[in-house]
Amino acid sequence: xxxxxxxxxxxxxxxxxxxxxxxxxxxxxxxxxxxxxxxxxxxxxxxxxxxxxxxxxxxxxxxxxxxxxxxxxxxxxxxxxxxxxxxxxxxxxxxxxxxxxxxxxxxxxxxxxxxxxxxxxxxxxxxxxxxxxxxxxxxxxxxxxxxxxxxxxxxxxxxxxxxxxxxxxxxxxxxxxxxxxxxxxxxxxxxxxxxxxxxxxxxxxxxxxxxxxxxxxxxxxxxxxxxxxxxxxxxxxxxxxxxxxxxxxxxxxxxxxxxxxxxxxxxxxxxxxxxxxxxxxxxxxxxxxxxxxxxxxxxxxxxxxxxxxxxxxxxxxxxxxxxxxxxxxxxxxxxxxxxxxxxxxxxxxxxxxxxxxxxxxxxxxxxxxxxxxxxxxxxxxxxxxxxxxxxxxxxxxxxxxxxxxxxxxxxxxx
Length: 414
Ligand code: FEO
Description:
binds MU-OXO-diiron, 2 domains, Rossmann fold
């Protein structure tokens, strides 16, 4: 049974977090393995003459959510519901809230949000919908709510709310991450350190296709002057940020820009019968000789790592090595799917080396090369040969690794 948190967030305001910890989910968006789970964060702000609800939770948990909400307020008293993003992990319980609210509340969001809600839940939920424009302000309960659109983070409907007097950003997906942190906020460095890799994994899998918009939209918020003094960032998933709120946006910017960790090389390969693995042992040995730090994921007849975990490693890698078997004159199916997702979700200007093995006829390496050269990645070399690697193959692989290292270092020095 998922845990539900109800936490008051400030001394001077009746601002509450309602967090549902989804420990039942296995595949976010039916695609991404998340054994670590996820939280859905909704917020409630009770003001003198207004009660504002910020987003809801996934429909699976609407009963739990309604029980928690009713501990804070009679749903009929909710005057405004702000919809930052309509993906059903946040909007799933909205029809139920509105039903129990007797459709009294004004629902606030972008034009896209209105259209999507109508498509998902029918006309009734948008009968009292207020479409906002980028930068529009509304006075609600004596406070100023500024709505700022951040399109493609990660849907076209997405916006954030800035509570002007209190310098609080309600950011929904932006600033979110996977996993179920043991605290609600960033007060413990230990919790934050454990959480941030799940943020990276979340960014790449959920927002990665649009990652250039992360940098653009955070720049937009900075230019509006609302980032430097922000007191709290309240996302729709994971930790809330109030000890060092800017840190989460900084992390998003770094992932969006693909900022690399010095020396990190992502090594991914399949090996059906050990021939690719022999080559990858050479690759790894050569990388280590030059002080590089390989991070290794392999597909064999015993292990199959989650694509979502591998995607989460790409932004911080300086370079990538792909080891591949030719399979039915094509790329091994595991690597084929992985590559498709890497190029779609984590397409960065990073050098890539391809190392392949085949039985009677190659071709996987060339097919990968053609995918890589059409992406933002920088194709360094393809080294593909038959069966077990010969001494000559080994020399070629070591040369190729040295070339990869040269290409991954801005100074060109090892
Ligand atoms: Fe957390 Fe895009 O929904």
